[in-house]
Amino acid sequence: MIRTKTTLIVGAGASVELQLPSGAELLTRIGQSYDFSRFDAGLQTRDSLLLAQYVAKMAQRLGKNEAAVRAAAERIRIACKLGRSIDGVIDQHDNDNLIVACGKLAIAHFICQAEAKSILRQTPRIEGDLPVQGEDNWLYQLGQLVTSGVSRSRVDRCLDDLSIICFNYDRSIEHFLPHALVMAFGMQLKEAQQIVGAKLNIIHPYGTIGRLPWQPGEGPDVEWGTEQPWNIHNLAQNIRTTTEQMRDQQQTMAIRSNMSSAKRIVFLGFGYHPQNIEILVDYSLSHEPEVVASVMGLGQANLGSVIRVLKRKIGLENDEFLMIKNTRCADMLRDFSLLLES
Fold first, then answer.
1. What is the mean pLDDT of each run of 10 residues along the chain (342 residues)?
2. Disulfide check for 93: which of 99, 202, 212, 286 has CB 3.0–4.6 Å away?
3. Helix axis angle, 66-80 relative to 97-117, nearest 10°?
């Protein structure tokens, strides 16, 4: 059980370990699939055909000329060649609603597809089991952290000291945790979903592709693993650009409140992009929390920059409070499990 007020910050690197696309991979797929010029040569892909259908439908829904919407998709395709992330490309064109809409539509398509193809199944193969096989994944380690040492009578408190800020569009955490409660405590899935729905404090700064059907709230929903949802255009509207996120002062305040109240901050698969750091912290934190950070894949120069940024932004003066490890997310949660449960 997590006993210290902890904020877990989850980035694309964590999704990659679940066989969901990295930011770079998502950018490449969108750029390639919006290349409608290949249709004349018979070189279209399944994704480009689906996106062409979605674009045509979008034009009808918006009362726009299809050629204009295709031109917006083409603008995204070109910008993807230089962009670092699809949300960055969309934000560069925040003055053009058609480009923004095409970008969100492509994200929704590929995230729905990625959830369906990830290692997380919709339902476990055996009732009461987990929807993912094996222990070598960070969701399994997270499940252990929140359930270990918790009695059945106190299960509704197992998430009390955990807040999550997830920069990914997928719903893997929300989908997994109820099954972890089912396995740990032998409860019915519906009861576990009610507990997670009521107690899990999770914020997606850039939105998600929609609620899972059991989650409370309003707005469109889609079941995990639905590769081609009928309401794809409605789901796309849940995606948020950086500009849209920053304009949402209520959510920004909630994110920064979770940061300032945390005694321990854990970065999991996070890319440390400046715009995302800015979302998390505006001024240096004053209470000097413990920081555990995964930095897998960072070069030495970037690693030094990340250390300086974390120390400055989080207000760390004591080097012992900053624990950095170049390892996978699953290994990091396992290796620091005693600390994270303390």
1. 96 94 95 89 87 97 96 98 94 95 98 96 91 91 96 95 97 98 97 98 97 95 97 97 91 94 96 91 82 87 88 84 93 96 91
2. 99
3. 70
